[in-house]
Amino acid sequence: MSTRTTSRLASYGTLIGLLLLVVLFAALDSRGIFLTTGNLTNVLEQIAVLAMVAAVQTVVMVVGDFDLSVGSLASLVGVITAQLLVGGTSLPVTILLALLVGLAAGALNGVLVSYLGLSAFIATLATMTSFTGLALLVSNGATVFGLPEGFVAIGQSRLGPVPMPVVIAVVLTLLVWFVLSRTVLGREWYAVGGNSEAARLSGVNTRFVRFTAFLASGFGSALAGVVLTARLASGHPNAGDPMMLMSIAAVFLGVTLSRAGQPLVGGTVIGLLIVGVLNNGLNLLQVNSYVQQVLTGVIIVAAVSLSQFSRARR
Amino acid sequence: MPTRPTPVLATRGISKDYGPNRVVSDVSLEFHRGTIHALLGENGAGKSTLMGILAGVRQPTEGDVLLDGQPVQLRSVAQGQAAGVVALPQELVLVGTLGAAENIFLGMRRPGRRGLANRRALARAAAEQLDRLGVELDLERPVAELSAVQQTMVALARALARDARVLVLDEPTAALTDTETERLFGVLRRLRSEGTTIIYVSHRLDEVFALADVATVMRNGRHVWTRPIGETDDDDVVRAMIGRSPEQAFPERSATPGECVLRVADLAGHTLKGISLEARSGRVLGIAGLAGSGRSELLRLVAGAERARAGTIEVRGRDVTRAPVGRRMAAGIGYVPEERRSQALVMNATITSNIALGSLRELSRAGVMDSGRELRRSRELAQQLRVSATSVKQDVAELSGGNQQKVVLAKYLARNPEVLLLDEPTRGIDVGTKAEIYQLVRGLGERGVAVVMVSSEIPELLGLADEIAVLHEGRLIDVVPAASATEESILHLCYRKPDR
User: Which of A174, A208, B221, B331 gives 20 to 30 Å between its CA and that of A230?
Assistant: First the structure.
């Protein structure tokens, strides 16, 4: 087999891996639940909130950075939303405020990274820590219950057969896809991530462009926080935290599908599906949840190293 | 005739190919004990490659390296050092946060008991090495805080600690002041008297004549001659470095000087000191100077890649001194930077997106890209510049250097610039593409564009430019008409030797 064919195969390896997982679980699932519409809808519903975070994490990774604060920001926005609603603030005002908090947090990260020159890792590690603290302060460290039904519907109702979180995730993902692939800003994001100096010398305002990526990240994380709170019908100060690492993992899995080694929204979606199918399938097979975590890690390493290997050979 | 001593280090018929390019061709040289041997040549003459081969960094395609008359194979820097050949690259490789003592013994078996960091034994051993150089300095202080000459001393001590018999120095005085240079020379003479062989690469001829015993000139990868320093002079060396200039097809010059498009007054930067220049529409202004003369910095300041410390930059009377790159481009400046891959291209993106990167606003409506127009524009430009690629959707990483350069040019030509700044536009490009780029530069001049071109290849400037401005250590030495200049006269100005 020629090197070219091998690398072709490897670059689709992640997609093939997803299909293999589906086939594997379908075969092992003696009760015939896995491939039902109901269960597949479950898979989508389970990854919907994570998909919102992953979509904006993709943007930040396109400009060549990370945002470690996405999960804790979602948690913070979630408890703020819950407290506002419990305190009697109207639904539209609450959601508006929640999204503004997200934009402000994103702007903070953007200023630290883009204008003050901190590394994205350090800056967002610091804000992540502070956001977690703030979330605990706002909620007094406890879960906030008693949310109005109109709000809970955002997370638990359906549009026809499709759960509302899935609808919102699809809309946000399509929006990110459109901006990344069809707009000037998207081109500038990719150019800054590909070669910041070349972009600067081509007249791109690289600082501002990097700043906007963090702004987008703050917005998406806040949206995820709102939907997550509605889905859980309660505000929990740590509810969003695990999404940070999983969103980065999903983007990396997606990068393996990109010829140029750049993050792509489509790739991120495949990465999310792998994560979702894996968790769902292992649940159905009643595999111990600790073992599930171990396996998720193994799969990520396998997929990413396979693609690294094929790239190195090119 | 007395029998000649066996050279410490020698090459026998060394050649080195990079792909189809032969960068060093059949070079046989001898380096003798206790001599300072200067290696001279223009950029691209093959000096660095040859030095790399001597130090074990690179392997020759053909030929042998002989140590004490015996052929050896130096497959790595470590093997070179074990054989006593140590090279000091131009950019010293020291760990800035560690002290001199740590740096000297980095990567070696350290003095003192194995596995334990014995600071006192280390300091003693380091002081011993520095003593041989007649140097004293604070051994604990991070080397990043030391002066340039002190850092060079640390690097030399490091070489001595490795029992270097042959030292290869690449432009060691580039970052030094005159007094520091004198100090370094004192140390080098001292090492020579102890029997160390020093291979010395420098562009500064006055240094070479002050220091070296023997000089070798290389040109286009070949050995031109080796002579005792007393039997040659700088005219002789310059002529050998240039050789007979190869006939190059430079397009005819058309002499219609236009109005002043770019005016730079009292411009100062990191190295530049008070430069005033004008570029006129329809003319090509060449900028000559040695590496470090500030020639690239001049373009970077005008393009907005760096901020000027003083002075003004005007494009058609509009002051752009403080404007960001984007506004300068809008004012009519186009800039092709020196480093294609790191400064000009997004390597993992397509030809189309690279060309479009300079004019995203023009190719979009309400922030949304007009992909059809983008594709048509890039096809037109790629065709006009004869970019050879399977399609404009090919990644630029897959293109040859010449085609990559054409893509960079296309990016700026797409904006119809009034001033085009070119920094080494033909570096690393094959002869055929070079000729095409010459045609293009000439054509731009005819269309009324003011071209400012930096090149280290003087024949290129003579062939293309109308006037040549020569820089030396940040100052403008002279602006001469290209028609009456010769390679020798320009090179003399570059070295700041009065024309004879």
Answer: A174
